[in-house]
Specification:
Elements: E1 2-4, E2 13-16, E3 19-29, E4 37-44, E5 50-56, E6 60-64, E7 67-76, E8 80-84, E9 91-95, H1 96-99, E10 111-117, E11 120-125, E12 129-137, E13 150-155, E14 160-164, E15 172-176, E16 182-185
Antiparallel strand pairs: 1-6, 2-3, 2-6, 3-4, 4-5, 7-8, 7-10, 8-9, 10-11, 12-13, 12-15, 13-14, 15-16
Length: about 190
């Protein structure tokens, strides 16, 4: 379905110059003279690279119909990652390549949003924060509190992140899923 560039919205999938893109951010600019322009920050669904595309306000853009499904992570068998649709109980297998570095934050029953185009899973979106249990971390040094000191900690999924000195093994912490950094204790 073709729409005018001014009707593009953040989160939509568009096709432009033969490439399928997801719109990450939009900036509408109206210069003193001439027509408005739209700067769309987009990520290619084929190459996963981000680029900025400049549209005139009158340009036509094809919007792709997508299906976003909330799925629950179930398990991995080492080669694939299995997710269940909580409404239909259907199980879907996603590849490690699709999950990229998100697989280090997956825990059982975590609900994620998967973007499908024409029945094919293209991207996975984790919640903004994930709660994980600390498996291992070294003992903090007493008195070493200047400059917000941190220490490495290994979490239940195997990922290692930096945490404050007061965090101990067995603690549940929140981790930002985008930056993979400590947020707070639960």
């Amino acid at each position: 379905m073709a729409v005018v560039a001014t009707q593009i919205k953040k989160g939509q999938c568009i096709e432009f110059s033969g490439e399928k893109l997801i719109v990450l951010d939009l900036d509408h600019r109206t210069p003193g003279k001439g027509n408005a322009i739209i700067l769309a920050n987009c990520r290619s669904l084929q190459t996963n690279k981000t680029k900025t595309i400049r549209f005139a306000s009158s340009d036509k853009v094809d919007v792709i119909t997508v299906d976003r499904q909330k799925l629950e992570y179930s398990y991995t068998d080492g080669t694939g990652y299995f997710f269940m649709n909580p409404e239909t109980y259907d199980t879907i297998e996603l590849t490690a390549e699709l999950l990229e570095d998100s697989k280090n934050l997956l825990i059982e029953n975590l609900v994620v949003e998967v973007l499908f185009i024409e029945g094919k899973a293209l991207t996975i979106e984790l919640p903004a924060q994930v709660e994980l249990t600390v498996k291992e971390s070294s003992e903090g040094i007493k008195g070493d509190t200047a400059n917000n000191p941190q220490k490495p900690a290994t979490l239940e999924t195997g990922i290692e992140i930096q945490v404050p000195l007061f965090v101990k093994p067995g603690d549940r912490i929140k981790v930002d899923s985008r930056t993979k950094k400590y947020v707070s204790r639960v």
